[in-house]
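--- STAGE predict ---
source: upstream dedup step, 1 unique chain passed
mode: sequence only
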Amino acid sequence: MHLLVKEAVRVGVKRIIITHPLLDIVDMTPAEIKETVAMGPEVYAEFTSQFGNPGANPATVKLYVEGIRAAGVEKSFVSSDTGQLNSNWQPDALANAAKTLRANGFTERELDLLLKINPAKILGIPPPATTAR
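--- STAGE serialize ---
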C-alpha cells in the first residue's frame, strides 16, 4: 500500500483514502498507517466501525485505537461499513464506535473529526454541527 500511495502522490492524485488498513486483506501496521498518511495533505485512513460492536475482541479494539492514533484524528475517519445482511444498522454501528472510542480516551472534538468533520471535508460539503465544547 505504501508504494501505491507514494506513486499516486508523485503523479498528482489529490485525495487518497486508505480503506480498511487494519483488515487482513490490507494488513497495515499502525506504524505503516502513520507513515502512509504523512505522504500528503489529503491522504486519509478509513477505519470501519465494527471494532465498536458489543462484545468486540479487546485485541481488535486495541488495534483500532492504535491505528487511529497512529494516523492521527486529523487524517482519519470512521465509516459504518455495515450494509451486509444481519449487521448493525449504520447509525447504531457509528454510535457503538463512538462509545468505544470514548471509553478509550478519545475526546468529543476528536470524535467530531472522525465522524463528522473529516468525512464532510473529503466529500467537499459543509460539516454538520459539532458537539459543544
